[in-house]
Amino acid sequence: MLNNAVFNSAMKKWSRSGGRLVVISSPTAGGKTTVCAELIKSDSTCVRSISCTTRRPRKGEKDGVDYYFIGENVFRERIKQGFFLEWAKVHDSYYGTPGLRAKALLKKGKNVILTIDVKGGRQVKKNFKDACLIFILPPSFKEMLKRIKMRGTESRPVVNLRLSTAEKELRELPAYEYLVINDSLNDAVCSIKAIIKAENSKIKHAKEAH
Ligand code: 5GP
User: Fold this and answer.
1) Which atom of ligand 1 is nearest to the CA of 97?
2) Domain extents for the chain?
3) Ligand 1 lined by 162 (C-beta under 6 Å)
């Protein structure tokens, strides 16, 4: 017969209190940085992972806030030390997610948001089966070009390199679990919050944790 103890034990067993790795990828100018910034501002369960990169800071970017900007030798040394949860070479620079902070945040029950490329996304899914993979697309190609031009921080050859990478990234879309169209910032953020909530409510994940 159902009583308080039986009820509480079922609740304890099947509700999930841990955090989750949430990978958010998009082709260039898909808007993932803005969407993630808004997500983190409005949801205290979500924390952004700060990556290391060997690329130079863009105007306005701060070390330790946007990225940890490090040299290639240091990056290679850290790969050897197993410092990264995942890493990849993107557009001629190295990028990697520091593992220790992400794992500590997961333990605290936080959803750790990784705004990383598709190669990194694949590595994360391979090593963390319950990670959630979300792909963001701008509403159209025209809009994507408009956003790249508005950004204005890149030269023509860099824009071309990014467009050719974007084509390859689009082919990886089927490896992802969710697609969010970034037409309106508010709608995109709401969709991502709903996805995270649904993922964290899955009984399947609680079963895997047992
Ligand atoms: P950007 O130089 O424009 O900031 O980033 C270039 C690409 O690198 C983007 O697709 C971005 O998501 C990706 N990226 C940023 N940090 C990481 C990371 O830690 N790991 C991987 N694999 N990709 C990253």
Assistant:
1) 19
2) 18-209
3) no
